[in-house]
């Protein structure tokens, strides 16, 4: 198999139809009828003269079939422990029983024992390597183990092998064809895989196709998919679509989420739209039900800190952020936002203490170091500011605000115009549409060429708290 790439899932001419196995987690997988037949053949060898099977082989076959029957009955009664024991007993009489292997794997998957499920699915594939259903189920198990590379490879195999993979080859991602037989479980898994990789457009396409299939097929993940789509649309800036998804599941949120979780997401969408009043209303609904909800208290604190809100109040911001930290003192982001609120009130010592707590918990966050640089800059500790900005750049060299602040720092410190120009130029490359950067860069270049006097250096710019969050895991190449 060629090295996979997550934007190149394709289909192939189907092989013979494999037994259906890939049940969702809420439904016990059924034993494929022709898998049983295959298992029967495996335990009924004949000699070259076609002599009848020995009594021992007949007894082994009878024992296997009896344990398989006991396993099916136990499954139907919802007794998975006895079911898996029965199937394992069947495998003791016939280690190559496809029915036994697939059922043990299916139950292990239901019980979220993914290492065991993977082991048994792999054993099935050793006997039946062209079983697309098993490859699809194996891909899901790898996905739940966060082994994205192997999950991708397994899903790719499933798309090659399924007997009508529900798609037409159309790069970069083939979308299920509405007129063809469809497999929502497979595309649900592929959607999650793309989401994990950060390939939001492809994840959206896969999830949307599952919802179209689900109108006619029995698949119980619709509300979970709507939640995932709501998050994806929010990340894509499609706020109306995001709100529509969350509104559809508000009265029946997918397990284990509660109504408060959906209101939190609705509030966050409104916040992204700068509709701070509606955001505050949504967050306050959550706090009314759960007064110690750390994340919502954090968001309310940030809302009261925002310059653009009509209800800005730094003292209330500090109160909400302090309550958030009382509920969860380990959250580095809450410590950081508390520092920002103290900075707004020019309480530099308290801001420094809060930033130190944030860095102690997450020392690899470039946003934290940028804000520490801003603090040092504003109290004229230029050498410490330079050190903080340098740390931010080492972690993430693509933050325009850090380069702009570095340029301003060079201007303010010994009038290092050449170094300032280099820093502003880098900031302009990263944010070419920012007029503040381009105007300052033009002023410095003109002053350097003509010897004209410059106005005072601009003050430092801070960053949005979530603008440079940790990047998504890169897809395989």
From TrEMBL:
Composition-biased stretches (Polar residues): 30-51
| Molecular function terms from GO | chromatin DNA binding; RNA polymerase II cis-regulatory region sequence-specific DNA binding
UniProt-annotated stretches for the region Disordered: 11-51, 452-477
**TPR repeat extents:** 64-97, 98-131, 132-165, 184-217, 223-256, 260-293, 332-365, 366-399
Alphabetical GO biological process terms: negative regulation of transcription by RNA polymerase II
Keyword check for Transcription: yes
Pfam families the record matches: TPR_1, TPR_19, TPR_2, TPR_CcmH_CycH
Subcellular location(s): the record lists: Nucleus
What does the UniProt keyword field contain?
Nucleus, Repeat, Repressor, TPR repeat, Transcription, Transcription regulation
Q: What is its main location?
A: nucleus
Tree of life domain: Eukaryota
Keyword Repressor part of the UniProt annotation:
yes
> One GO CC annotation, please?
transcription repressor complex
Residue spans making up a coiled coil are none
Gene3D superfamilies, alphabetized: Tetratricopeptide repeat domain
Q: Which family does it belong to?
A: Belongs to the CYC8/SSN6 family.
What is the protein name for this chain?
Cytochrome c-type biogenesis protein H TPR domain-containing protein
Q: Which organism is it from?
A: Scleroderma citrinum Foug A
